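Fold this sequence, please.
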Amino acid sequence: MSQLEHLPHPSRLPSLNHHTLAFFSNPEDARKAASELVNAGFHEADLNVFEGDDGVEAVDLDSIHADLMEKYYRKFVKFSDSAEWHFLTEADDELRRGHILMCLVTMNVEEKDVAVPILRKHKAFDIRYCTGIAIEEVV
């Protein structure tokens, strides 16, 4: 059974392209979802977990830890009031509230369609599917 501490906890939020994103209110629900996702054929290396102060730092809403290109890109995303910016602000807020963000690599709709029911079963909320050009709210 997967344990959250054994899953990747990157220091930076990955590119959102080809990911299914979900929030959890508690670690136990996130752990159960991760375990079932691995049993369904996803790899633990494709599950990124963000929580607590380290998660807030990884989202880096204010681009404090970003290089110059990332800072310009983030300013563009903020200025354009894009779905990505809305997600980043929500992620920052949810992590500050003590919730957990799980990012799962889903390269296509079929993988998303396998992941979403598992996430829902384990009480994930504000689920989103990110393609190369759009962020779809799965709800």
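The chain has a mean pLDDT of 88. The longest strand covers residues 19-24.
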